[in-house]
Write a structure and sequence with these properties.
homotetramer, DNA-binding, 69% helix, 2 domains, mainly alpha, 0% strand, Arc Repressor Mutant, subunit A
DNA sequence: AATGAATGAGGTTTCATTCAT
DNA sequence: GATGAATGAAACCTCATTCAT
């Protein structure tokens, strides 16, 4: 399967006519519906028919615009990753206050996962299939390099200031934050059963955020 | 759907004859195959036919012993949870050395996830379906209460000794450890793509274990 | 398919031992259950498994005693016919009062159908399959000759007395009575929907019996 | 299960194109084949595969147009009822000659049942299942009210003329005619075995019609 | 660009029946 | 005599996909 650059879409030109505009609209509706359906039912469980129905379109259009189910999923995947990437890049961090910035990153990441269950669900599905689609996509590879982007300057400044320990690496910090935020969201339903707390409760979410901020900061600040 | 106590299986009696023995064997072979297949392909993607083939049995026996696909999955789920629970309980911890014990728990948890990808995969599938099966099962509810069992005495001892901070709760500690171990395993394939490291590499796994042990311990020890 | 005389059953001897007695009991339980199940679901819809369950036996015994599903049905059919035949023969009619006797026959027939929905249901199923089984069975052929048995003497007496018209034939009288009684029972559920009356209501049943008695008698008595 | 008005079919518009026309044809072919198969084998015994084969279509189209086997049966049921209803309404009766008209109704009814064994078979199947489908269908309820339509004016005229007895009710007359005509047809195969006459023989059918006309008329005319 | 009609492969499940003790 | 285990054929139904306007 080959993938084309997301933005260089054949149905999108700046001077597009009504037909083209309509086409882009339909395509987007399908993509939105597909994201929702794949997030709820996974790739295998997601039904073409349900996607086209939720998009107020019909099956045939999915094949017209995306080729087949797998290509549609790939498109959903790329779009979903890209959204996350864009949101992350949009974070406005003041490197002068590394600890505050770090807290901001943690809070953003946690909130993003909570607010975008489809991102979490699709990532899980990808891992079920051993990143089969992700590893095929050029678009995704282009994003992947920048994934720890926010942390690097922040960490450097903190280390220069003597606030953060020298041993801390951006990669470990990134994975630590990801773990502590992602797990809560991705496993919230089984955790609710097992831990006996309601992980959908916002108060409990706030408490968790406070806790993991503390954990992360304790893991990076210099020893007293 | 109703579930029966796992151990009170109609095909298992201590004085069982050859027939009953054979039957139990067949049932177990199906369960093992089902665990594998559901772990690899999820509930929707898992095929009855493949399960029966891998079990060297035939489709019909699955319905004979388990009723239908969903009940089979529920059985797999319960068995998988129970295995984890038993392994956890079998951990021999010396509460006299809370830090060493804590490290043991972290290492055990991490290794268990690494060694049992089916547990991770099935948990993910359960969360995709909002713990639909887990919340229905009495067997699972029976386990759930004890899930933080190992940590409580360990934490208490550490706090009495003045090694751990008073504010630390078993629940937060449990979730912290789970996050830091689970995420690495569950998302290893997409992480490999995004972070550019091979998460299946044992050296990298060791490095991560060392890192998270450090993070967890820093999060619980008393401030200097 | 061959059929054996019903009473000459291999499992029935007057000096039977305990085992044989038990066997006959099991066989009867199966037959009773089968009658019920076939009556409710038809031949195609009737499930072997449900029959054995309702008989507190197991599938295997059905094959042990009856051979296969079709032979079981044939047995049910024969038994059901025979029951009707025996009940009919047991009618004690006073040929001296032909009209009263005729009323008795009509009432008996109607009540029998009402009280034995399984007879009606199984007859319908037989007709669906063009009397496939009935025409194969020797036992049934033996019964068939006597089917109008009650009416012949009654009719003759009435004609001799000058109460009944000479043209009336036993066959027509038999079919007329059968029609007027059977249809009410066999079609009671659709009739309830279409006619808007509750055909299960005993008052309505009584009313109908009165009506058809009148119709039949008017059809046989001599013109004024 | 919900039913839609039969005539308001999505595949039928007065200005339909070739495609829609073809679609309607396919749907009709399936319906015709289904009617035949269900009539021959009942609901349980009727096979989807046979229906699609006889319709020169494929299994999938049955689900495309009707949803499932039960809905298909419901459709067959409704159509079959409607056909009968339309034929009945089309009867051109001269109320001026009540007796002649009555004979016409009797003959029509008898002939209809003879000529439409599928109607009889499907009614029987419905009664086996206690009118499960009929009672669910709005379309059928709409028909049901008019079922004795032909008899009412005829009966009134006869009673005004002093030809028919005042006590006769349309409902009883309707049920009497139905009984005497339906039973002959519905039970013709077992009757052939039991009575020893060939109920498929047209001469015998004519004889029966003559007989029941006589019975019905004797049941309504004023006493001499 | 859009869509209803059609399809075949394959999915889950059911069923009557036989095996083996 | 009785029964649990096993089976293969076939049933209903679903699904992604293509055809034909």
């Amino acid at each position: 399967m080959t993938t084309q650059p997301i933005s260089d879409d054949k149905t999108f030109t700046s001077t597009e006519g009504k037909r083209a505009q309509q086409a882009r609209k339909t395509k987007n509706k399908i993509l939105t519906a597909a994201t929702k359906v794949f997030a709820e039912d996974g790739f295998s469980g997601g039904r073409i028919e349900r996607i086209s129905r939720e998009a107020n379109s019909n099956d045939r259009m999915i094949y017209y615009y995306f080729g087949n189910k797998e290509a549609l999923f790939l498109n959903v995947l790329e779009t979903t990753y890209l959204e996350f990437y864009k949101a992350e890049k949009a974070l406005d961090l003041d490197t002068a206050s590394p600890i505050e910035s770090l807290k901001k990153v943690i809070a953003f990441t946690f909130r993003y996962y909570l607010d975008h269950p489809e991102f979490v669900a699709i990532l899980n599905d990808e891992n079920l299939h051993r990143a089969k689609h992700s590893s095929q996509s050029e678009n995704i590879k282009n994003i992947s390099g920048n994934i720890q982007g926010n942390l690097v300057p922040l960490l450097e400044m903190g280390q220069q200031n003597g606030v953060f320990r020298k041993e801390v690496t951006a990669k470990n910090l990134y994975l630590t934050i990801s773990s502590l935020t992602y797990f809560y969201c991705s496993n919230q339903y089984t955790l609710t059963v097992f831990v006996g707390k309601n992980f959908q409760d916002t108060a409990f979410q706030d408490e968790w955020l406070k806790h993991i901020s503390d954990v992360v900061i304790r893991s990076v600040i210099v020893d007293a």
